[in-house]
Specification:
heterodimer; A: alpha+beta; 5-stranded mixed beta sheet; 4-stranded antiparallel beta sheet; 35 strands; B: mainly alpha; two-stranded antiparallel ribbon
Amino acid sequence: MDKVIVENSVEVSARDPWYSAAVAAVVIAGVFSLIVIVLLSVNHYHFKITHENRALKLEEMKLELAKTEYKEQFLADIRQFDLEIREEKLSRVKFSRTGGYLLVVALAIFFGCLKFIQNCNKKLPSPQHQSEAGPRQLLQTRQANIAVTVTVVIFVGIGLLLMVRPAIDLGSGEAVAAYPLAEQIAANWPTFRGPAGSGISTYTNIPTEWDGASGKGIVWKSEIPIGGNNSPIVWDDRVFISGGHEEKREVYCYDADSGALLWIGDVTAPAMPGADEFEEPMEDTGFAAPTMATDGKRVFAIFANGDIGAFDFNGKNLWSKNLGTPDNMYGYASSLTMYQNMVIVQYDQGMGDDGKSRLIALDGFSGRAVWEVKRMVPNSWTSPVVANIDGRDVIVTCGDPWVIAYDAATAAELWRVDCIGGDLAPSPIYAGNFVLAAEPDSRLIAIRTDGTGDVTETHIVWKTRDGIGDITSPVSDGELIFLTAGGRVTCLQLSDAVEVWEEDTDGYFMASPSLAGGRLYVLSDDGAMYILKAGREFEQLGLCELGEDCFATPAFADGRIYIRGVLNLYCIGSTE
Amino acid sequence: MIRSALLIVIAVCLLITCADAFGIQRFPPPDFETGHQLPGTTEPGARSEIFEYVDAAVLIIALSLASWLILKKRNRRWIFMLMLFSLGYFGFYREGCVCPIGAIGNFTLSVFDSDYAMPLGALIFFIAPLVFTLFFGRSFCGAVCPMGAIQDLVLVRPVKVPKGLEQALRLFAYLYLGLAVLFAATGSAFLICRYDPFVAMFRLSGSLNMLVIGACFLVVGVFIGRPYCRFVCPYGVILRQLSRLAKKRVTITPDDCIKCRLCEDSCPFGAIDEPEAPWPEEVYKQRKKTLALLIALLPVLVVLGGWVLGGMSDSTARMHASVRLAEQIYMEEAGLAQETTDPSSAFRGTGEQVADLYAEAVKIRGQFAVGGWFVGGFLGLIAGLKLIRLSVKPTREDYEADRAGCLACGRCFSYCPRDHVRIKELKAASG
């Protein structure tokens, strides 16, 4: 190679010392670039592998933390290990960045010199003999036609594939209903005392005869691994209850048809170092007094120490958290309820003026708080109910001394009435056009629901002292109210609280009464179900013995009753 | 060709690993309850507004200089120097933003969304190269575009792309432009900016994916001149059409073509068209029939394109964050999602109604369906016109720089003996 022409006719000799230098630089820069690439790759993948292992180890250490006795030392070890991982990470990143800069410089030299060499080697253009232009151009044009056509066909083909690809129908009613519809809720028993916490089943084919001793009318009976006082909830073919003691808090899912225990969900959270010392609840309350809730896709359970968890219907834990140890003298017992995709937690605790009580709405899927309202009330044991009042979904709560209604969508307070006090356990109901709230062993109050603000002076319709118990909640069919107190059952007229009848039984009622098919079901603590006519005349239609103590309110489904005994869960129904 | 392809594959593999350099994930913050307050997110202060106009002024000066160098001076060396300056200034110093290519998204959104005001600087960046192209050809591509410059620098061993393949690959740029406009018009994404293959290199930071894609373009660019510019750049699509109308543009020869054929292999971008031989009579008759058929088929192609892209709206609408969120929420609600995402968790924290989100997503899908018809129709029209153009009777008699495809790099100047004569005459005239 002697002389070559470069751009604008500047002549450069290929034997120029710069040429040799450029060749050497290309080789050196190329080799250097390769080495940097290899080192960067090794750095990246080696760290990726080791980091995953160390991250796993760190997670294991965190889980171990709950079990170890020497928490402070172990915590220090975890922090040290965590620090080491971070330091290594930063060191690796620095290595990568430095390598990246070196690589850019090396590649710039590589390509710069390569272009210089290319310029030095540039040859004079020497057009080669070509085939005749006409046929060649025709062939090229034909090839271009084919290529363009094939490309268009490929585009259209891909487009058609994407067109027929199934898409999520966001416009359908099913998609819009991200939470159960009212009809679905009515057909199930998703919360404490069923839909709207009313204690009323929409089914009329509820059993009236069974006997625990002979097994008559008992579809199945399944053992409960860990006890609790919460009531069963039912959705389609699944029955859920929870159980707990100091060491463990669990959720149980049973097959509604066979009684098989399908899965157990563990909600036990590891004890947090530095967390408030938890005072054990009263034995009568226990760790698992709050009834669970479901939206038909997920179930939620809360326990006396503030552990709350969510599971899907296959038992997969969606989220678990602790809301903070509740300051509650008998043990936390308020049941969960649902509004659309939100789990409503009435977290009343403390003395009232300490601002500890809250009404919390958690997103069912993620467990994140959607809204939270402070309540200046002390600890209580009542459960919130969500009722549709005058076309609006309202959360009604009881907490000494207030009955408070909140807009379920916005958490805005609608109205409040100063009318109840003491250690509140009975839950409110909405019946007729009234909210009924009970003060234990003292009085029942009917409140009109069209007020705003403090309506204590204007919206109390009546108060009565007849038939009020200390734990159980009332039930009403819109015309009559049925109450239990000890072993007594009382029927009042809803419009004016005039007593219709009152009868004593041999039972003692811890479970709240329920209505189904025009019958009143009242479960005694010895497992005897009193079935009474829900009418103006007292009439006992049946008395069914289960043979096991029962403290929880039963759940009702299509042709079935689910009763929780202290040891077993029963399904009552037709055995044929 | 096979050897070159093999080299490309090996080099791409090497550069993929090299792109790891800046692609390592950030480390998550600690999760101990130690009372340590994590510092809040901070953002760098906005760049002074004056620099926006400085950038615009630099762009206009660069375009003017480029046009002068290309059309008057016809000097590749100075064009190359200006290209290096542009790479340094618009690329590494300004980190590839604002660039006229990405400004397509801003411009489109400002047209379709009355709440969005396009910054004046971005508007100048979008319009100035178009105006210069209309008068002087693609001087922007030749010497001012940093993306073109970085590809130009790595072009070492150019390989000729067959004409048919070149024509077909160019359709990708039209498709990319159409989708970029569709996504910007619906407020979904600035597609061009999001998938800018070189911006991560200019910033020496970016996602691993984009670094890899950029590296692939450069590796391919070692053998195939400016692959992004020729087969992907959506701004290039617009410039191509304006360049056809340009009053002045690059010519290989400064005066008359002597058909010496010295220039025919000088362009690494396949932008030199040779004289066309007249068609034989039978070919001419056949092409006339084909032409008539294609003209008749043109409306069919337009409707087909519109129908396909409009019908894909459920898929294309996924580029919109609200649609993706609605689908994720739906999957979560239906128990089909394995886990939540950050957007879905954030949405649930807002307390907004799922039904409202679904309604918004359905509305956006509708916008994509309508927009898809227009963009698909446009693509069908382009494909049809391309086929028609291939069936039009040839008229070119000289070696010419492709009116649309010439990137104005000036490589061909020194290959023309007439240009050497011109230079000699100029030297003689200047003593």
